[in-house]
Amino acid sequence: MHHNTPQRSHSVYAPCQFVFNPMFFIGIGIVLSFLVWIWGPVFAFADDGHYFQRVLPQEYPAFEDDLDYERLSEAIQGSIDYFKKQSHLTPVQFGEDQYAAGHMIRSLTKFRNVISARPAAPQLREFIYQNYYVYTYKISEPDGSDGVSSMFNASRPGVLETFSRPVELLFTGYYEPMLQGSRSQTQDFCYPVYGRPSDLVSFDLGDFSPKCPSEKCIGRYTGLSVVPYYTRQEIETFNVLAGKAPVLVWVDDPVDLFFLHVQGSGKIRLADDTIINVHYLISNGRPYQSIGKYFIEFGLMEKEAVSMQAIRSYLRAHPDESRDILNYNPRYVFFEEVPEGPLGCFQIVLTPGRSIALDKNQYPPAALVFIQTQKPVVTENGKIEKWVKFSRFVLNQDTGSAISGPARADIFWGHGPYAELAAGYMRQPGTLYFLVQKPF
């Protein structure tokens, strides 16, 4: 996208000699300080040219909620409870702006109180305009040859120009699968859901030396040293976890178990109809590799045809190939039983349709978000008829190994046939906006 702005022309006059004048720099400093005071720290620079910045009021979206606020209060309460566990002074970063956890509680509470009356979209938009700042990632599109001149709008002298547009995100989905299981191993129920192994250790490199980056690592303690933990292939082939990792439950399908690892949490129904919740505890530390990429690289499917449902069907039809395909992803997940679920990475119980997963290194945790993307319309026989635009308020309550960078978002759809369908096929473009109450 290019802006129609005047191009810099060459002067017909001879270049004048610059004479150092300290008052010139003082004057520039006063002007820039005034702009920062008026606009706040608008830009938060990222290495890839993205900026998490405050949105101008005239750029606010319509703030229409396709669910008419259903279950939004429930999701907001989860985030409030998260912030209540922090010190009220714990800083929460919005680009270069900071808000205390106590302020986040007040911001979410105020919004929850207002939406309890189910206001119409114009009323809510006016309320947000008056009371909330809105942030989003934008991608820079400078219209000048130097960084300073391109920050100002030639047609509106003195007005800061963002010369950018909101980053378009790829929205995908995830869901909570339901598996069949048994507390004891049988001929049918022979695939283990493991808890954390006794020889798996996690540590921060930064604790060992100031020269090391602060990075969480996972490995295997051998008694003398720490080495990389076993890969999926090693775990599945050589039974290396025997006597080291507790088996929480046994399931009857290796493909379902694999997708439980991918989703990170799920429900398992036992023979007596008892349902237990299992949740991601830790992984083997190996990088996540999408098996969808395997299907594309080896010519098993066209990129457009890859979906969770298509992959599952192929694996069922080609059981002799399934082990090699699943082992393409070296990452292996260990679980814990939880009383309710599923839980996000901030230990918040996720709300279907209201919780999303984002890169926690890019976005403020547990904050209120407004999204615009597309959802499937499903026929009575369970087929996707079309995709339609929708928008709603959600909360940033989770993350994922495949969710990296500011241009990825994952919607938690819950459980059931629609959730599985939406999660399996969703790869839609969209935008998102963060909201936080003005501090005055």
Radius of gyration: 26 Å
- What percentage of residues falls in helices of 4 or more residues? 10-25%
The CATH topology of one domain, please? Barwin-like endoglucanases
Number of helices: 10
Question: Strand arrangement, largest sheet?
Answer: 6-19-16-18-17-20
Write the layout of secondary structure elements.
Blueprint: H1 22-39, E1 50-54, H2 72-84, E2 91-94, E3 97-100, H3 101-115, H4 121-131, E4 132-140, E5 164-166, E6 169-174, E7 178-182, E8 191-194, E9 200-204, E10 216-221, E11 226-227, H5 232-238, E12 247-251, H6 254-263, E13 265-269, E14 275-283, H7 291-297, H8 308-317, H9 319-326, E15 333-338, E16 355-357, E17 368-378, E18 384-398, E19 408-412, H10 417-425, E20 428-437
Parallel strand pairs: 6-19, 7-13, 16-18
Antiparallel strand pairs: 1-4, 2-3, 4-5, 4-20, 6-20, 7-12, 8-12, 9-10, 10-11, 13-14, 14-15, 16-19, 17-18, 17-20
Helix pairs in contact: 2-3, 8-9
Brief characterization of the structure:
This protein is α+β, with helices and mostly antiparallel strands and 440 residues long.
